[in-house]
Amino acid sequence: PGEVVKIHFAKNSLSDNAILECRDRKIPFFTEDERYVAYVAETYFTKFTDINCFIEKNSKKIQVATISVGQKEFPSERLNVDQRRVSLNAKDLKRVQKEQVFLNKNYSNSPGHPYFDEPFMLPINAYVTSIYGSRRIFNNSKQTQHLGTDFRAAVGEPIKATNSGKVVVARDLFFTGGTVTIDHGLGIFSIYGHLSKVQVQEGEFIPKGTQIGLAGATGRVTGPHLHWGVKVNGHFIEGESLVKESAD
Q: Does the global pTM surpass 0.85?
């Protein structure tokens, strides 16, 4: 649950200009080292069934991968934050809804080719204070899932882009404060939240390792840190699994 795997399959007459489907979801694929490659993610909210992937063209279908989904336990944690960011008033709720429309539009417009040609890396080398998948209870009232990774980071600490791509978000958001989102192509996005300063612009193409901002304590936080999120195939996943799989 909440991880991504990199699959590859041989080129043949059927796979050229074909559609790759995994559990009825269309997945973009690309050429790498004379083979086809795709990144397939599983939701945190999995039903623990195998993911079967097929290429289909002209009513012909060939299975190219079967991915097993194993059991995984996630911890729980209790957090105390500004109550205004837990129980939203009408004005804040309207802002959050508007921001979500903006984010969803960006998530739906990723190209079917990669903007990157190197493995992904972590945005900062620091201690992880909250792992992906933790069940969170805010102010003993609101329960959510933490679908990202939190790194210990003092205010002003530089944060790097985990890979090359197009900046699609570079602004202040209600929950994540100063936020940068990078579209890496193939429906792969990386998100950097709670920044004290954003140092890139929306629409800008940046290389891997670019300093995109400074760590901070903006948005819904208990203290300074970096929230790093990764979204693949429409699912928020554990970022380190993308780092690992892209290096393979």
A: yes
